[in-house]
Amino acid sequence: MESFRFCFLMLTIAILASPALSDLVLSKVDRRIYLTSHIVRISSTMKVENAGSEKESKVLLAFPEQQAKNMAYLIATPHEGKGKGKNPVVALPVEAANPKDMPAALTLYSVSLPKGLAEGDSFTFDVLAVFTHALRPIPEQITQADIQLVLYQDSAHYLSPYAVKVQSLSVKLPDSRIESYTKLENTKIHGSEIKYGPYENIPSFSYSPIAVHFESNLPFAVAHELVREIEISHWGNVQVTEHYKLIHGGAQSKGEFSRLDFQARPNVRGASAFRYLVANLPPRAHSVYYRDEIGNISTSHLRGDSKKTELLIEPRYPMFGGWRTAFTIGYGLPLQDFLFESDGKRFLNITFSSPMVELVIDALIVKVVLPEGSSDISVAAPFPVEQWQETKISHLDIDGRPVVVLKKTNVVPEHNQFFQVYYHFSQLSMLREPLMLISGFFFFFVACIVYMHADISISKSSASYLAKQQWEEVQAVIQQVQNIISRCLTTHDNLEASLRDLSRTGNIQACKAARKAADGLLKELSKELKPLLTFLQSSPSAAQVLPKVEELVAKERELQEKVMVKHSTVVDGYEKKLGARDIENRVALQQQKLTALRQEVDDLLEFIDEI
């Protein structure tokens, strides 16, 4: 509030010294400020009269500098009056003006009238000004359970370089819950509407500050950046892809967030958050998707009729003040609804901005991807935009597709107007991709035919074939060696199991029988192993792996000997009727060596298996 009073003081000092610019007089001004959204719209109906002798053809509109910085859209149209038909209205030309002797604290625009006003003539016209970021959250930070209060500041008197005979102002709010508002002479309040005036005979550059502090829990949806890509395919489709970086532009959320409280009482524990957005897509939109970097988001609903297709989307989480999210929306459109021909050129006629309802876009980038081979490109936009061209390489492209890039900042729904992209495209260029596909398949089948009829096998007498065959034989022998070693280890495990049975039952004869069977089996395995080792020693292909195989066999034999020694020691102890503690002490050292040897054998088996 203090900064507002300071700005008002500086503005008052500046405009009091400013003289009237002409003999024009505003005989009646009716202003309506709509605060029913986070986008502020001021609609004014003005009747201007020429009280001088010179003919006047332009009317100046004045805005405080701070307010002008937030102005996103300004249009002036002739006033049609009530009860008249909805005929197309041609906007009056509006351009920035910089007359002399005007204070720097004011920004002025000039409206060109359809015809000059002679002495005593009058003309009534409407002015719509749209502002973004004009509502200031007070307090700036709130908790999950708090409602959102915002402050709007303006003037009860219409700021104009001309004298005003009669003027009135109405401020329309989202609802009747008003925290405070400035009370002046002739101030009335009716539900959610505050009326100031009428005020009569107001001098030029009159400024009477007002402030309205009210509750507004409407979605403060702001797209920090939106990239729209519109790709034209002459095969019948216009593909639109929109990448959003969204933020809740209201009061910043502080404290912890409880989803349980939010789901239980969303209107109380999340009144300031918005849970969904609505996009009005063109009619006959198809193949609609809604996803983010994680994947597809299923919380969306689509319904349509002959006039529009409505897409309701819900972010993955409720959006509180300051929270951000990023997502992508895509859909296809019938080509015949948006692509036309005129004077030998094709042109795309499509809307410029986002289909989202009441969305503020800080930076909007529109990319129109034309078919490869397009030339002589031009753009017709209803408002100034930055423009440049790029190239996009896509599937089956040779030179790439030309891309027309348009950029505009501070975009509001009023900017969602049709614009046109003109280009020349030859019908023969449409045959490029089909011919590429046909040629590709043709050469592919030719290559398959050549491959099927060509003999590219390796000769059985070649050195590479023989080396491969020898290595395969070596691999088979090594596999047999591994199997024999594994069977030996299994026999060792059986001997260990017989010792455990001996300690449990005391049956010495059964233990000796197990020892006898193991001795016979190990001898047979040793016989099977000898010819395999002889083959590996004689094969040049086994030179690399032979040392490890021989080491494996030696370690297994050493392990076998120590297992037999342990077995004999334990059986001898039981025959002498020694205690279990004494027997364990006699074989403790042997057991340590057995464990170490078994680990070495397992490691060698694993190493040889990897080779």
Automatic annotation (TrEMBL):
Q: Which GO terms describe its biological process?
A: protein N-linked glycosylation via asparagine
Q: Which UniProt keywords apply?
A: Endoplasmic reticulum, Membrane, Signal, Transmembrane, Transmembrane helix
**Entries under Pfam families matching the protein:** Ribophorin_I
Residues spanning the membrane: 435-454
The pathway this protein participates in, as annotated, is: Protein modification; protein glycosylation
**Which domain of life does the UniProt lineage start with?**
Eukaryota
Cell compartments where the protein resides: Endoplasmic reticulum membrane
How far does the signal peptide extend, from start to end residue? 1-22
Q: Name one GO cellular component term.
A: oligosaccharyltransferase complex
Topologically, how does it sit relative to the membrane? Single-pass type I membrane protein
InterPro entries attached to this UniProt entry: Ribophorin_I
Subunit info here reads: Component of the oligosaccharyltransferase (OST) complex.
- Family statement: Belongs to the OST1 family.
The function of this protein is: Subunit of the oligosaccharyl transferase (OST) complex that catalyzes the initial transfer of a defined glycan (Glc(3)Man(9)GlcNAc(2) in eukaryotes) from the lipid carrier dolichol-pyrophosphate to an asparagine residue within an Asn-X-Ser/Thr consensus motif in nascent polypeptide chains, the first step in protein N-glycosylation. N-glycosylation occurs cotranslationally and the complex associates with the Sec61 complex at the channel-forming translocon complex that mediates protein translocation across the endoplasmic reticulum (ER). All subunits are required for a maximal enzyme activity.
Q: What is this protein called?
A: Dolichyl-diphosphooligosaccharide--protein glycosyltransferase subunit 1
